[in-house]
Specification:
Length: 1246
């Protein structure tokens, strides 16, 4: 290969053209005359505008190249040689790499700093200055616990989590970003959110523990620390300086058999409740996500449309780059393998996209794998066969729509614009200035100290006194760093670290304490020949520190196949110590000297004998560079340990899993426990016969050299709504003789739930420093939404009921209280609920109980403090009958007129409980028609409290409706007035119901009095004919009332939306005559199916038209379809809902609430409820897609019996039993249950 060689990077920066001079004329892009700057290059333009401007300028080949990860090894020589300092590039390789794999570039090599910066500069300069569009690349590296090119190495992620300190985690992550950013690295492959619930899996060390809440909290801190700020000299719209990459999405950490990449078994509830919450908490603002190798419930993650599209994209609205995962073939560092004299072997390379064909076998070709991968809107990481190279031909052959590629490209472009790369993707001139700074190393020392966990301290063995004469430091892990740095570190990282032995020597220098060292055994050997030396060291010392544990390798050695017991593709069948380590500990303990065992490991060590016999036990998950010194400081008391277990330690591999948040009934208890005594005696019992499911140490465990007393537990509330946040406060006193840090932990248990829930779950924690003798109040906030459960209806619901809360220093908390979640109706804004009319010709009409109604309309008007339900019906009573009533706490207020419509001016009343709105037949079934007539006549314009029997005065207005079947009416508050809209087949009328009132709403109670009749404000005769289908209204403040109807006529082909705009002047609506403007909009059904029973609704951003499509899928299923009209901007857009209607659905209705949609479906079982978030609204710069996302936390059905139960047992009394017996729905911040008088088969779908 021909290389261009430059002596220094400065020479390259000063003369960009020599880079180009190495290419032939054929290789260079054609020079073109200057053109106006396109929008996507305008740094002041909105990100979405830039994305949308750039995408159509790209060729198909350029788009596909954005989706495939390239590698700097395509143009830089010997990237695996950390001693090669020559800066050069292969011009041909550079052009070739960027042509096909130029969207993202792997640069995670160990090489001299100047060479790395030079190499990245070459690549970005070429892309920015010598390609048609000048699209920079994502430059990628690892960052799991440090920048892996001789950067600062932090503790392994499981060690970072053991600190239980998200603030410290955020600062640590910021330093990793600092060190990488200067070189032009702009994407780090971290954090890992795989839960450590399967401890045989070798990658437990890479995660943040077993708990979803801790993992999500610490991962969020990492993401925020890495991304915070912006690169130098970038656009004002840039939102991050580095892209964090959350991985592996999702459920990757619990493979069957503990084997890397093996399938993960589970269902939707486990996925939603355990594996996804950390990602949702931490990663929605992360600029990248990486998928997983494994399958979940039989579906490979890389091809899982439900996971990657339905949940991640649509439900969560994730809008950034998603990339597949690949093997680490590109980490294979041949130079060091050969020079170490290790037998070279090639692990090979594959990606999760390749695995769709080669491993999971859900595809039969690379082409199929590529299609399935890109249809999930993800890119392809390198290391495999680069299946995406087939996409260009597949699009041209019509095998896949280019829309999948376009959409995926938009995600990576959005990430790049969010990083400001189009303005400055280059390394900084001072790229080495942030590497291994004193401030970073000081922060690292604090983290290495804070992650150490004291598990046992019998007889206050620790801390050791510096007045002793000697200490023995023994064990295979005592004298080295190399094997204890976790994987994903560079070869030679140990040279920057401090071993435990060196830590003790450094700490004790200048004292009279002698350090007696003996290795005793090798980590990977059964050889006991070193035991005598170790025993002698212990016998000649005042105390013995035995350092044992697991081990891993740096990336060079790990992928060369050297032995290890943790790390990627290093899985185990036993969780105990390997080789002679356990016997070494037993020999040292037999000397009679105080024996302190230190586990340095990447996962918990299951050794019950050590747990029972060691005098003290310290857990140090793979530490950072300062770990050896930090350990010595803890042992001798210079540092008070404050770490907590982020993962539980089972007694044996056979008693795993041991995670603390087990589902109720999964850990049966039995008096006593089986065991095998030291002398071999077998003690038989049950659960297990010779062991116990109780772990050696549980999640959250960790001791201190001081003591803490918890007292005065108090809750901010004892009864809360689903929208509330509970603040729990506890007084914590340091009653010992040392200052100390305490992790205050809050655990919650749901006493009764509709599905099985965890016996307890961590819902909050806080690490605090408490001086000796001092007491501090610690408050932890718990949003009640965190307590939602995934129900059998496949919805997240915050179920009402009693919850226990426990506070303490571990999951075995010391203080306990409880609180109750109660359902409460909150009615903010206006809403309307209308059920479709009966049709006498319907075959089901004859089955309807009670009076035979030919038409009924139910309107629900929601006011800030009151719910008004208005029923209007035309029945076989021979006259129009309308009833309006308000429900507040077991009182039913009714105003009616037996031959006209009466509107009730509602008295404002504060509700204190649930409101169950029940229609006319259910509530008044004990009243005969004559009783109702007499009640109306007696009232003479006054509403009657029928239940209490006492009159409540309301002013009623009479308005005679047109004598037509297709009359609709709507009531709203507008401009301080009560306005009613009356629509018939030929006209629309606006009426003011209070022309003589000066104050809107009157007083709290309005005396009945003579007053002026309603005044007609405006009337519009239209082209709407008797085939008008539906109307709706919108209330614009003071100046406009808009009425719209869906029409179908001979004049208009198909369905149209006809909009009337009644525009008032600046005066109050009731005192001015509005002008009328009309417009028509064609309503195209995107599904090209027949849209039946279309209807229309307004909300603040526009109009929603909807209907159902019969037999949508050819299998008899009817689907609800919607479209959104932004009538002010003349735009019609389909809403992505597609609800399959139950076969026994009687009726459906829609309620708008802000930008959300609530859909009711009445069936024989009850009312089904669906809620969609963010369905419409003004587009923001980063929200090109306004998905209607199905809310994950709504009950599906409210049974008829549940509503009756609540009503009969007294909602206002807040009867807890009634709450627990009844299924309730959450609507916005509260609960509303709406019962229908209709039964199965009584109403055709309309």
């Amino acid at each position: 290969m021909a290389f261009v060689r430059l002596s220094t990077l400065a020479c390259f920066l000063a003369t960009v053209q020599p880079l180009a001079s190495a290419w032939s004329d054929a290789e260079l892009p054609e020079k073109r005359a200057p053109k106006p700057t396109p929008l996507y290059k305008n740094p002041k333009a909105k990100i979405e505008d830039r994305v949308n401007d750039l995408l159509p300028r790209m060729t198909l080949e350029e788009k596909v190249a954005q989706l495939i990860q390239g590698d700097i090894n395509g143009w830089t020589p010997n990237p695996n040689d950390p001693l090669d300092t020559t800066m050069s590039y292969n011009a041909t390789g550079l052009v070739e790499m960027m042509k096909y794999k130029g969207g993202s570039i792997w640069a995670g090599y160990q090489m001299p700093y100047d060479k790395l910066a030079y190499t990245i500069e070459v690549g970005q300069r070429y892309l920015m200055e010598n390609t048609t569009l000048g699209i920079p690349a994502l430059i990628q590296s690892e960052g799991l616990h440090g920048f892996p090119n001789n950067g600062t190495i932090w503790p392994s992620p499981i060690g970072l989590a053991a600190s239980f300190d998200p603030d410290l985690m955020k600062k640590a992550a910021a330093t990793i970003s600092d060190e990488a950013e200067g070189f032009g690295i702009n994407q780090l492959f971290a954090p890992v959110l795989d839960l450590g619930r399967e401890l045989r899996w070798g990658r437990v060390e890479e995660g943040l523990g077993e708990d979803p809440f801790l993992t999500g909290t610490m991962a969020l801190a990492y993401v925020e620390g890495v991304q915070a700020g912006s690169r130098r000299n970038t656009s004002s719209t840039a939102i991050a300086r580095m892209a964090a990459t959350c991985k592996h999405f999702a459920a990757f950490g619990s493979p069957q058999g503990g084997l890397n990449c093996a399938p993960v078994a589970g269902g939707e509830r486990e996925l939603r409740s355990i594996y996804l919450p950390p990602f949702k908490k931490a990663c929605l603002d992360s600029l990248a996500i990486m998928t997983a190798y494994s399958s979940y419930d039989g579906v490979p993650a890389a091809g899982n449309n439900h996971l990657l599209v339905d949940i991640l994209r649509k439900e969560w609205g994730y809008k950034y780059w998603v990339v597949s995962v690949a093997s680490l073939k590109h980490f294979f560092q041949e130079y060091y393998i050969l020079n170490l004299g290790i037998l070279k072997w090639d692990f090979g390379g594959f990606s999760s996209i390749d695995m769709l064909q080669t491993q999971h076998q859900v595809c039969d070709s690379r082409e199929c794998s590529a299609r399935l991968g890109v249809q999930q809107y993800q890119g392809e990481m390198g290391g495999g066969t680069y299946t995406y190279l087939t996409l260009v031909d597949q699009v041209k052959k019509g095998l896949i729509s280019q829309s999948y590629i376009d959409e995926t490209v938009k995600y990576i472009l959005r990430t790049k614009f969010s990083l400001g790369l189009f303005e400055n993707p280059y390394p900084y001139k001072d790229y080495k200035s942030k590497i291994r700074t004193p401030a970073t190393l000081q922060l690292l020392k604090q983290m290495d100290e804070d992650q150490i966990i004291l598990l046992k301290n019998a007889g206050n063995t620790l801390p050791l006194s510096k007045s002793i004469s000697s200490v023995a430091v023994i064990g295979p892990s005592a004298g080295q760093v190399l094997k204890q740095s976790s994987d994903y570190v560079f070869h030679g990282a140990n040279l920057n670290g401090i071993s435990p032995l060196d830590g003790f020597k450094k700490l004790l220098a200048g004292t009279n304490v002698k350090v007696n060292y003996a290795e005793g055994a090798k980590l990977w050997s059964n050889d006991e020949s070193g035991f005598p030396e170790a025993v002698s060291a212990a016998e000649n010392s005042d105390a013995a520190v035995v350092v044992v544990g697991t081990w891993t390798r740096d990336q060079t050695e790990l992928w060369a196949g050297l032995n290890a017991t943790t790390g990627e593709h290093v899985d185990v069948a036993d969780l105990g110590l390997v080789g002679a380590s356990l016997k070494l500990v037993q020999e040292i303990k037999a000397t009679g000297k105080p024996t302190i065992v230190v586990f340095i490991s990447g996962r918990p060590v299951s050794e019950p004998w050590i747990a029972d016999h060691a005098d003290a036990i310290v857990q140090q998950f793979y530490p950072g560079e300062m770990g050896g010194l930090a350990l010595a400081e803890v042992i001798f008391g210079d540092v008070n340990p404050s770490g907590k277990m982020p993962v539980s330690a089972p007694r044996d591999v056979g008693t795993a899993p041991a995670f603390y948040n087990w589902l109720k009934a999964s850990r049966p208890t039995w008096p006593g426990a089986g065991k095998v005594l030291d002398n071999g005696t077998l003690i038989f019992d049950h659960y297990y016969v010779l062991d116990s499911p109780v772990p050696l140490w549980s999640f959250g465990d960790g001791l201190s050299y001081t003591t803490f007393k918890y007292s005065n537990l108090r809750l901010s509330k004892t009864k809360l709504k689903a929208s509330d946040t509970l603040t729990v406060t506890v007084s914590v006193s340091n009653t010992g003789s040392r200052d100390g840090k305490e992790v205050v932990q809050a655990y919650v248990t749901d006493q009764v739930s509709t599905v099985v829930t965890p016996n307890q779950s961590l819902e909050g924690f806080k690490k605090v420093n408490i001086p000796k003798g001092k007491t501090v109040d610690v408050s932890i906030s718990i949003p009640i939404q965190q307590l939602q459960v995934w129900t059998s209806s496949n919805k997240f619901v915050v179920e009402p009921g009693v919850f226990d809360i426990k506070i303490g220093s571990s999951s075995a908390a010391v203080l306990q209280s409880n609180f109750t979640v109660v359902p409460v109706l909150v009615t903010s804004g206006a809403a309307a609920v209308r059920f479709p009319p009966f049709h006498p010709s319907s075959s089901s009409h004859r089955d309807h109980p009670g009076p035979t109604h030919t038409h009924m309309t139910v309107s629900l008007l929601s006011l800030p403090d009151e719910l008004i339900l208005i029923i209007f019906d035309v029945g076989d009573l021979g006259f129009e009958d309308a009833v309006a009533f308000t429900l507040t706490c077991n009182r039913l207020y009714i105003a009616c007129n037996c031959k006209a419509f009466w509107f009730v001016i509602a008295e404002t009343m504060r509700r204190t409980g649930i409101v169950i709105a029940t229609p006319l037949f259910e509530t008044l079934q004990s009243l005969s028609v004559s009783d109702l007539r007499r009640a109306c006549e007696r009232a003479q314009g006054t509403a009657i409290n029928l239940k209490a029997g006492a009159p409540v005065l309301r002013r009623c207005r009479e308005l005679v409706l047109p004598d037509e079947t297709h009359v609709r009416h709507f009531v709203l508050l507008h401009g301080g007035r009560h306005i009613i809209i009356v629509t018939s087949s030929h006209q629309v009328q606006l009426w003011d119901l209070e022309p003589d009132d000066q104050e809107a709403g009157g007083g709290s109670v309005i005396e009945a009095a003579e007053s002026q009749p309603p005044r007609l404000l405006a009337s519009h005769e239209s082209r709407i004919n008797p085939r008008t289908i539906d109307y709706s209204i919108v209330d614009s403040p003071d100046e406009e009332v808009v009425v719209a109807g869906i029409i179908e006529s001979d004049i208009f082909e198909g369905l149209w939306i006809h909009v009337f705009s009644f525009r008032f002047g600046k005066t109050r609506a009731g005192n001015s005559t509005p002008s009328i403007v009309t417009q028509d909009y064609g309503l195209t059904n995107p599904t090209n199916h027949s849209l039946h029973a279309p209807s229309i609704r307004f909300q603040e951003y526009g109009i929603v038209a909807y209907g159902y499509v019969p037999n949508y899928d050819g299998a008899g299923n009817d689907v609800l379809d919607m479209a959104f009209l932004d009538y002010r901007h003349s735009a019609v857009k389909r809403l992505q809902t597609d609800i399959v209607m139950p076969t026994d659905a009687d009726a459906y209705e829609i309620v708008m609430h802000g930008t959300d949609i609530v859909i009711f479906l009445a069936t024989s079982a009850g009312i089904h409820l669906y809620t969609y978030f963010n369905c419409f609204g003004q587009q923001t710069e980063d929200s090109d897609h306004s998905y209607c996302r199905l809310a994950p936390d709504w009950r599906e059905v409210l049974p008829w019996e549940a509503a009756a139960d609540l009503a009969e047992n007294g909602a206002c009394a807040q009867d807890l039993n009634a709450y627990q017996r009844a299924a309730v729905w959450k609507v916005d911040m509260g609960i509303i249950g709406v019962r229908s008088s209709f039964r199965s088969g009584s109403i055709p779908k309309h």
